[in-house]
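Bacterioferritin-associated ferredoxin
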Amino acid sequence: MYVCICHDVKDTQIKTALASGVDGMNGLQETLSVGTCCGCCIPMVQDLVDEHQANFVAIDVMAG
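Predicted structure tokens:
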């Protein structure tokens, strides 16, 4: 699904970037340019960042 229409970025690209170590909204803006044009995608991008961080914490707690 497209998240950032301005820069043609899909949710899978964002998830892949986060999984490979890109850190948060600032990192995604630098690497994929999401949220740097009209800004309409920022809430959805932030939801994906939050989801990724929640999953990371859950995995860390389970391993812990």
